[in-house]
Amino acid sequence: LMARWHLQYAYETALLLEKKYPATYRRIADKLYLQQEELEAWRLAAENTYIPYDQKLKVHPQDDSFFDKAIWDFSTTPADNYPLMLHYHPLVIYRYQVCKQSDTILAQLLLGDHFSLDQKRRDYDYYEPITTHDSSLSPSIFSIIASEIGYPEDAYRFFAMSVRLDLENILKDTHYGLHLANMAGSWLCVVQGFAGMRTNGGGLKFNPYCPQYWQGYRFRIIYKGSRLEIAVELNKVTYKLLAGDNISFMHKGQKVTLARGKQAEYKLI
Question: Fewest CB within a 10 Å sphere: which of 50, 85, 149, 198?
């Protein structure tokens, strides 16, 4: 999916440069020995990239043979045998439907505008029970998608797992060093998960809510040079433009435009 996206983006960018900045395009093309037929090859490769999909289950398999395998017997796996890769040979693990993290769920975050909400929910419902989260990179991604598809309890549970991963040595390997990418993931649970921030599909978007266990949260971002503060409480959200030029974004599908020093407040149901 990511390879297809990059090929499409490279093709569209090359066409844009060639049309609007022909001298710059020619300079870059000469330097890269880029031929016109290569552009067409990128387009054809993107169009013909195979993405597996099971029509019966309406779910994306991780690979063509994934759904032909038996599901891992979690009921008889001792708690001490996690993470699985520390106790079972990969050739044993790979014979079963079990994931240490789900690439499918990650793809639906990175390329969120390529999937419907129903599709995200079906894929999540399938992969969540068979994912062990033996990777530190897994809980935060599941938390973000759980927020998006309307599973706030799951979202908070996975956020708690992410934020406590090293504090409680959940993966039993903190003595090798802190999981720094997971720390960033914990921040993303709040910003992309609870606040629903997205930039894919064009433009800045928010779909915020406040976990029932909190009174609120607040964070700041810089988008195209403008500094925006987002403060979310149980029953309202406030957007304030602290610095920079006027900014436009979407709040739950509604367009919002702010000038510097101005703020907008919306009720949350």
Answer: 50
